[in-house]
Amino acid sequence: MSETRWLSDDEQRVWREFNAATRMLSAHLEGQLQHDSGMPHTYYEVLVALSEAPGRRLRMSELADARQASRSRLSHAVARLEANGWVRREACPTDKRGAWAVLTKEGFAALEAAAPGHVEAVRESLFDPLTPEQVTALGEISAAIRRRLSPKCAAAAAAEEAREYSGEVVGLPKSG
Description:
Layout: H1 9-37, H2 41-52, E1 57-59, H3 60-66, H4 71-83, E2 87-91, E3 99-103, H5 105-127, H6 132-165
Antiparallel strand pairs: 1-3, 2-3
């Protein structure tokens, strides 16, 4: 067992600032979307991913990967988006287990209506307080963190998918 690498006072300060800032930013953007558009940020991200895909359609597995979400969580979100008429599922003709998520005209219209307010909230809360150099540095820092975490997150997602596939509820022991 290795010795704990405690944070220095400066690292502790930076960690707390970063943690508070990212939580506040996420809460602010979530609140803006809920208030202005009646949708959670997760649903907005699904609509964006579909709007940017060829033919405004993605396989459910690709959409889950793109949104870094488990397939069961994505399926729940898509079910809610279907209920709103914003997305529809289509069976995959080449894979009986596969399905496509397709952005509807109504879904694209909802996204178009939500996007201006959301983009303004992102600009106002994230980019406006920063200098161009800080924006560049933030991009580099964010990319470095993602590179470090991507393999770990992929492994955790695969483990979660395996638990879901086996019928085990995440966080609870498998009943038997």
